[in-house]
Amino acid sequence: MRAIARALQVSRAAVRDVVRRGTAEVPRLVRPERAGAHEADIRELYLSCRGNLVRVHEELTARGAVVSYPALTAFCRRHGIGFEPPKPAGQYHFAPGEEMQHDTSPHRARIGGVERAVQTASLVLCYSRMLFIQLYPAFNRFTCKVFLTDALVDFGGAAERCMIDNTHVVVLRGTGKEMVAVPEMVAFGERYGFTFVAHEVGHANRSARVERPFDFIENNFLAGREFRDFAHLNQEARAWCERVNGTRKKHLHASPRELFLTEQPKLTPLPIWVPEVYALHQRLVDLEGYVHAGGNTYSVPYQLVGRRVEVRETKDQVRIFDGPRQVAVHARVLTSEKRRVTVPEHRPPRGAFSAHVRPCPPEEKELAGAEPVLAAYAAELKKRGTSRWTVALRRLWQMWRDYPRRPLLAAIRAATHYGLYDIDRLERMVLRKIAGEYFRRRDDEEPGHEG
Fold first, then answer.
1. Is 251 helix (H, G, I), strand (E, B) or coil?
2. What residues make up the domain containing 422?
């Protein structure tokens, strides 16, 4: 007995009891449960305290029960009170180049001395576990294409399919196997040789390759780090991915970078020409000489106020076109705050604003060379008019070209006499004075004027 106790490192009394019992079966430990007498109260408090066992223990102690918190949690586990046994997780095996997984997750990052909400986008090659992340103030379809392009260029190719989490950025309708992707994203995938697929609702383990690193990103990459701006943040994210991909993984018996040497030849190679991703907007230049794109405002040459321009928003730039001509280029502002970007050359010279922004319209020139009473009325109309005086002048010029001269001049004389400079009332006066022919005749026209 002494030798057995020494070999098993137990007491001789324990060895003696087992020998006397004469069986190899371990006896069941039978002892009363202290929380057993309060089972009804525990079940009631569990519902009223919304499943918070700390509050259940506080209320149970207040009722006079002498039960420790570990004894309470063990009792709840044994009797199935708010406890479900964990389900066994499955395993997914992927061949090199078979699948990559993409997803996003909200995080908090300290940028420019302020903690901001960011969206972390991640792409993982399932076989080698190669990781690529970037962070953005918001994530939409344009940002998704920018991120995937950067990731595929970094990997040097694409896997056969890209698993997503039923995100509205890619999904047009349906979920899981019934998912139909947005045609724009389908065309993007065809360009790089992969297709989008979605896992079934509730089967989050299907995308575990991309889900697992998010906790590591939050508690390692973002923990204790500060960044100047989003450009600095994404630069540091690339460097961090390089270190992580080069670190040996115990469960893989290799580093992702080493496994990537096997997977890279199986990837679909990039096209010969990788086009630049851009979002196309049609914008009207406002009265201040700015256009809006991506939540920010960018200046354009002041001569284009009121003109419709085309805005191309790329990853790093905002390009503005007036027809085929590029009239402005700005560095794209990547921030969650709305900003105004102004180029000094886009503003008029000091003291010459009115001369450049208010050019003399051709209609005004023609009215100034017409009948004196008409020219005087047009000048007074411009003087009394608001910011839309050009519209009033254009209507007066159209009346001068369409209506007979005599009724028009008579109505203008009467309107000048009574101080009426409302174009709608003037036109009604002209129409009341018109008798006979409605349109201007050739004999009413000035010599050399073509009607």
1. coil
2. 358-444
